[in-house]
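Example (one chain per record):
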Amino acid sequence: MRIAFLISSATLMLTLGSPAFANGGGAMHPAPPPGQLPPREATPAQRATALYNDALHLTKKADRAQETATAATDAGKKDKAAHEANDEYTAAHAKFEQATQIDPAMPEAWNYLGYTSRKLGRYLDALAAYDKALSLKPSYADALEYRGEAYLAVNHVPDAKQAYLDLYASNRALAEKLLNAMKAWVTAQRAAPGGASAGVEDFDHWIQERVQISAQTASLTRAGTAASWR
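Predicted structure:
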């Protein structure tokens, strides 16, 4: 009996000394897995990064849907893909906006806030977001190219030209991408009711000059060409 009592007493003391009882009898909370912080312990930068990554995933889905809509010949499929793209861009835009609110010093989030704004037709909002991204990271080539396309959308041709020149000096691949967007813009202007204006034709002449200059520069040396287009 004495041995049994000692065992029971020891068991009781161990039980009373356990964290569940020491904290008033509440249930114990399991520790988070290694490397994973509970939401309340995550830093603003970590929360912003998580939102950014989620939004980037949605943006890529939206881009694929938009490509499908552009390529589709069936009216029903085209409309369905276009609606899907719009929904994904809208969801991504909301998350990028949250990310910029939590961490305003994140140029990548501002850049993609501009990108999704532009895809949703909010061109002035897009330009403001690109400006913010470039104020944080002046040499941000992606933001320069995207802003150049946004300038075209609001017919700010001189600003689009400057964007191209800035890119040509630093990133030939993105400069070429913007130049292709310029060519598409001219084609669309010519197809619009009333046709192209004299200003559009002047812009097209400027584009053709840039094409020639780019070709001449690229043919100077093999090594120089390979280095400049990376």
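Caption: Residues 161 and 193 are 25 Å apart (CA to CA).
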